[in-house]
């Protein structure tokens, strides 16, 4: 049996394990980095600069395209992209996104059956909208700026709904961590032997550290948000591709012209593909993404299928974190010469 590496080496290896599993805020240095990046003195000037630049570009596009809605659409899109970029670069959220995306596409064997279970009913429902003249009149008549604002509205509603419902999933995770689950969670991690030792000794149980800090809860919440967001984007992209193909095969230009009361604008070199068809497909894909988001989080069957594997990973993370914090507390207590650990080790 190989001797265990020193405790400091095991703790360092655990911090690297947290990073590779999308949990940078489970480490004190990650939380400190996020706090510094969230200071108003750093956030506000950058946000003002992005909004000002986007406003100038948006006004120019609105003037050139004779579409006033392009200005707010450009500002909102640029602001959202800037927030996402700042989160990845400055807040240290890149490990969360990398792990969540890899976890989603790495488990296609589990994702595809769930998506294919939801898609048929969704496609049947949305297809009735696709062959509806009123939908074509409404979507095809929208200028590009208003259509993009509609897509952003659907996306914002989906994100807001997830931010309301996903904390319930996080609460369920940290409420069911006992010693058996803790031992199972630490199996195969740098703290496997430490977990066994801490459970068996007479000291304070490491399960007392299952309560998460604010940054750690946001870490789990953002991981769930990215996982769910990627799944929704997959569904929306599939719906978009389906209706583009379905429209090219079935929607004759004379029918589209009769429904929209205007001549259709064909895409050069692609017969059967028109700007109106693309607009309708984009609108229905965005609507399908919102619909799928609501169903996936509210329906018990779908929620169990979507979150079963991910929540297992989060339970494992909380178990490893409990042992990690317990070791930090005991080390700090020994350094301070205290008989019992008294620090919270949360950072």
TrEMBL record:
Keywords: Hydrolase, Protease. The keyword Hydrolase applies. This is Zn-dependent membrane protease YugP. It comes from Nocardioides zeae.
């Amino acid at each position: 049996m190989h001797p265990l590496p020193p405790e400091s080496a095991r703790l360092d290896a655990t911090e690297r394990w947290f990073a590779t599993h999308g949990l940078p805020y489970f480490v004190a240095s990650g939380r400190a980095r996020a706090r510094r990046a969230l200071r108003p003195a750093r956030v506000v000037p950058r946000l003002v600069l992005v909004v000002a630049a986007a406003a100038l570009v948006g006004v120019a596009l609105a003037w050139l395209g004779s579409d006033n809605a392009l200005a707010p659409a450009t500002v909102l899109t640029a602001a959202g992209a800037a927030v996402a970029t700042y989160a990845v670069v400055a807040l240290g959220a890149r490990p969360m996104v990398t792990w969540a995306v890899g976890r989603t596409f790495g488990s296609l064997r589990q994702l595809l059956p769930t998506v294919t279970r939801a898609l048929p009913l969704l496609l049947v429902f949305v297809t009735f909208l696709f062959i509806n003249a009123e939908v074509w009149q409404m979507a095809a008549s929208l200028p590009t700026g208003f259509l993009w604002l509609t897509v952003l509205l659907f996306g914002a509603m989906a994100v807001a709904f997830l931010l309301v419902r996903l904390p319930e999933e996080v609460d369920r995770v940290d409420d069911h961590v006992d010693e058996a689950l803790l031992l199972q969670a630490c199996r195969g991690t740098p703290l496997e032997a430490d977990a066994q030792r801490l459970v068996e000794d007479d000291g304070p149980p490491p399960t007392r550290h299952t309560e998460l800090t604010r940054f750690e809860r946001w870490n789990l919440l953002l991981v769930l948000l990215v996982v769910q967001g990627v799944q929704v984007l997959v569904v929306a992209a599939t719906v978009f591709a389906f209706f583009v193909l379905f429209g090219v095969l079935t929607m004759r230009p004379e029918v589209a012209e009769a429904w929209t009361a205007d001549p259709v604008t064909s895409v050069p070199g692609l017969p059967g593909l028109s700007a109106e068809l693309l607009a309708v497909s984009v609108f229905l894909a965005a609507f399908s993404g919102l619909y799928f988001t609501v169903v996936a989080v509210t329906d018990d069957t779908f929620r169990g299928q979507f979150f079963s594997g991910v929540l297992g990973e989060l339970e494992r993370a909380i178990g490893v974190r409990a042992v990690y914090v317990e070791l930090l507390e005991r080390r700090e207590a020994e350094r301070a010469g205290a008989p019992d650990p008294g620090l919270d080790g949360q950072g």
